Amino acid sequence: MEIMIDIEDSTPLFAQLIEQIKKAVLDDKIKPGTALPSIRQLASDLQLNTKTVAKAYRLLERDSVIQTRGYRGTFVHPDAKANCKVDLNEWVTDKLSGMISTFRESGVTDSEIRIAFANVMNNRSI
Amino acid sequence: MEIMIDIEDSTPLFAQLIEQIKKAVLDDKIKPGTALPSIRQLASDLQLNTKTVAKAYRLLERDSVIQTRGYRGTFVHPDAKANCKVDLNEWVTDKLSGMISTFRESGVTDSEIRIAFANVMNNRSI
DNA sequence: ATTTGTACCGTGTGGTGTAATGGTACAACA
DNA sequence: TGTTGTACCATTACACCACACGGTACAAAT
User: Fold this and answer.
1) Of chain A's two ends, which shows fewer C-beta atoms within 10 Å, N or C?
2) Domain range holding A94?
């Protein structure tokens, strides 16, 4: 697997990793069931911190692109190719976009929207 | 009109102003049609910047609690008492809260929600 | 001439979240 | 024993935004 990380790129390192692994799956360069390099191994190869790689793996597993089998390693998910195409972020963006448009049309200030958002995210009730 | 601003309070100054004017309206201390002090006048009285007072007035007018009549001054809105009770922020908070709960239940990270939100607010289309 | 609301330029402070780094430790596997 | 994913402690640098401030200027009303 050839993975190139560009430190100069403004895209976060963990995001670059996710992109490239997804691309490799879609291009059939790594097939379902295949074992992926361990977190420590990949971090060492790419000169990254283990936590950066762990973060990428964690998100990839949430999206069912990979599977971690306890202490036995990490493998490509059986339905990886299909799950690569499901874009959770796009769904979130669309839903938010619609709601925020409604707010703005009702005269709500961007500043007010931001503050309400921050409050909700922190479970501060009003 | 007796308005007290507490600089020590963590509540933003403009928000304190809004609260107190609304309270004065609800308590019948200032009645619909009455003229309010000018922005410069009130800022001077309360030792505030004119912009801080202007911000409070702008939001109060959006909520139809007051009315600015061009260059003739600012007056209490005819339906001020009723409009004081409409809380736009509460509506925004409720709507956002529901949507964010849905996101979280779907496994979306708080970090991802924040990033998507920032993108939408800045009209950056991914 | 003065006052009105409004709009524009700007500065500075403080809070908050992200990203990435370091180190250490654990239980479960081979 | 060595490796696996994972969890915890922490720090650094960076960026965004809210809030409040200062100054200046304008057209329309009194």
Assistant:
1) C
2) 88-121
